[in-house]
Write a structure and sequence with these properties.
By secondary structure, the chain is mostly helical. The chain has helices at 2-21, 49-84, 89-123. It has a domain at 51-125. The protein is flat. Residues 1-23 form the signal peptide. InterPro entries: T4SS_pilin.
């Protein structure tokens, strides 16, 4: 019974604080960040096909950085597995497979970077 009342007390406090956090003067409007009342309804930063291609290439570039970083970290992990295997054949096989997949991941990241560079060169002409 004490758990139920303590849970209700915590929930009551949690819901009471949201009314303070969401309080707003009634005359204010909700305007997204970076805009003013004068610029509402104007077009965004993507106005041409070139802008769209640039945004997509930036997204691919970001994902390629993530894949490359993850592949390097997994390569380091495979190295640690090789060092700590102590002659155990299953651990060596696991480390070898992880290292192989991390090398494939690095190759995919390099290809993605080159895809971004080639696409930017083609589409910005």
């Amino acid at each position: 019974m004490k758990k139920f009342f303590s849970l209700m007390l915590v929930l009551a406090f949690a819901f009471s604080f949201t009314s303070i956090a969401l309080a707003q003067a009634p005359i204010q409007g909700i305007i997204p960040g970076g805009t003013t009342a004068d610029t509402l309804g104007t077009s965004g930063s993507i106005t041409t096909t070139g802008d769209l291609v640039t945004k997509i290439m930036d997204l691919i570039n970001w994902v390629a950085w993530f894949v490359g970083l993850a592949a390097v970290v997994m390569g380091l992990y495979a190295g640690i597995l090789f060092i700590t295997a102590a002659g155990d054949a299953t651990k060596v096989t696991t480390a070898r497979n992880i290292l192989l997949y991390s090398i494939v991941g690095i190759a995919v990241a390099v290809l993605a970077f080159s895809l971004v560079a080639i696409s930017k060169a083609i589409f910005t002409l």
